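ERR on first pass: missing label on line 2. Operator R.T. fixed the label and resubmitted. Corrected input:
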Amino acid sequence: MALKKLGNQTVKFQNPPSIIATASIVGPVEGQGPLKDYFDLILSDFNFQEKTWEKAEKRMLKEAAEMAIKKSGVPGNQIEYFVAGDLLNQIISASFAARELGIPFLGIYGACSTMAEGLGLGAMLVDGGYADYLVVGTSSHFCSAERQYRFPLELGNQRPPTAQRTVTGAGAAVISSKNQNPRITYMTTGKVIDMGEVNPNDMGTAMAPAAVDTIVKHLEDSNRSPEDYDLIITGDLASVGKDIVERLLKEKGIDISDRYTDCGLLIYSPQQDVHAGGSGCACAAVVTLGYLFKEMQKGRYNRILVVATGALLSTTSVQQGETIPCIAHAVALENL
Amino acid sequence: MALKKLGNQTVKFQNPPSIIATASIVGPVEGQGPLKDYFDLILSDFNFQEKTWEKAEKRMLKEAAEMAIKKSGVPGNQIEYFVAGDLLNQIISASFAARELGIPFLGIYGACSTMAEGLGLGAMLVDGGYADYLVVGTSSHFCSAERQYRFPLELGNQRPPTAQRTVTGAGAAVISSKNQNPRITYMTTGKVIDMGEVNPNDMGTAMAPAAVDTIVKHLEDSNRSPEDYDLIITGDLASVGKDIVERLLKEKGIDISDRYTDCGLLIYSPQQDVHAGGSGCACAAVVTLGYLFKEMQKGRYNRILVVATGALLSTTSVQQGETIPCIAHAVALENL
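pass 2 clean. output:
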């Protein structure tokens, strides 16, 4: 059963659900990055033997879910929900993966915050008694995202230094009521924050205030300080956004700089020429479920606050002159 | 606390959450239909004083949520979640409404099944102890949907008789742990069902098997028969899909024909020349939260099974030769 005080944005789970297995699949560029040894499968190209990038993305998500379920040892027919979403219009990666998985499906959308939304909702469903086992997943694909949100890749457009690279990959986690580490102990649901940014080539700047808002709310609601965490990690603010988060928090008297990093900074090396860093739903997903999950199992980290950020714009909203609404959801992962 | 047997798709709520207030806004065509007296606001045009149809849609959703909250008597700052989604790419109606509402936001996507997904998830969040009050909402708009999914309206394309008209409207409901009728007593989460249909101008045929699958699962899991309900109503199958549901269920020995109808049939009159009937996220939303909610308050209906259906395609998936994956989520509404 949950404990949540009215007015708070944070749920503290009284029986913290466990992440009993994870899987991560990445594309060829991420497979040359510093975290390459943590991923379960590295694709040799962008197509994954499919005819289109969108179908390749769907296949990554489907196979990541299957892989996580297999690792969990839970028979597939005992997985009660597939909670998933992605960046493509009408979340077709998730919907078509759900078609092939045959698991009752709850579609979600939080742009690049989707993994945290999914982990938080998944934990609520397990802790609330609605499922003993469920799988959460998300995906993104550099090529399908570029052509949907920006330009056809064939144009070879130049990108400004503030731009980020959409991570090609998929991550999935099986959440269960089993007593096993690591656990999901808190979920802080974000509000939509929009500081008036309009540049879709600078998502880090747009999303940083949402991350700050959610981190501050999480610390207030949980009565915790940054020192209670071994690591605070945002989803995909990359180099530009990460600096803004540190500065805005310092202005509020909160210093997280000695234990703070960003998934979009970790996934690529500076030599990879990806501009500001990584982004996309898969960025927080594969870094959290590939790298951080394994380091928690080893005991290197015991308390992590994952703050996945999402820019909730569309090409239509940009064309109609709207600014970029952003959100950040936080989940605390702990070895108890 | 919930009661759910492993392997079932159905949750039975032990403390069934209440729908304490609803609001519905519709466009001018729906405002001439047979249910017009049940809606809170009928727009005189498609623009709602906004510059674009997309902004009008967002405004409908935002105002429906505000109206439902006001009717509930709950102070706005005590509403703990806004659970919402819509048909537009990246669910911008919901995200931009969330920006203006300032309520912690969980974005969902289930195409035209979104209202049932939201009511079910909302009920889980309340019953699970994560919120005392939350608001669920969804919207659709004929003009924004046509230009996103089909053709620019300016072309004046002819539509086949199997086509449905996307309902212009928005519906919202405040769900609470208060002891008050009507309640949400069951949620059956759908699987994605795809029988190989490819015609995006005949959604009823595509979605009917998903509705059948969920109705059968609901009756099995809950150990109920159709006679346990005063009314079984699908979301937006309209005339073509409704007949298929009746026939497919009869083949399985289940006769619901004396207590079955469809939101897409009720919202327009045959004289309105809308072809097969209504569709869109708002179809199930305004019929359920406008018409059915009020008839339940009057006691005309005491047990309704709402089975909202969604076609999870996108223009990209259609262009890439994919068939149409469909889903249906069911929620039981009861006066206890």
